Amino acid sequence: MKNQTTLVLLSIISYLLIATHARKQIPTTAAATGKSWVRTIVRGSENITQLHFYVHDVRAGENATLYRVANSSITATSPTSFGSVNVFDDLITAEPDINSEQVARAQGTSTSADLVNQAVAISMNFYITSGEFSGSTVSIAGRNPVTEASRELPVTGGTGAFRFARGYAVTTTYLHDSEANYSILEYTVYVTYSNVALWSDILDVVTCYTIHCFSPLNAFKRVAESLEKLMDATREELPDTMAVVRLSGMEISDLTMELCDNGFG
Ligand SMILES: *[C@@H]1O[C@H](CO)[C@@H](O)[C@H](O)[C@H]1NC(C)=O
Ligand SMILES: *[C@@H]1O[C@H](CO)[C@@H](O)[C@H](O)[C@H]1NC(C)=O
Ligand SMILES: *[C@@H]1O[C@H](CO)[C@@H](O)[C@H](O)[C@H]1NC(C)=O
Ligand SMILES: *[C@@H]1O[C@H](CO)[C@@H](O)[C@H](O)[C@H]1NC(C)=O
Question: Which residue minimizes the CA distance to atom 4 of ligand 4?
Answer without folding.
Answer: 42
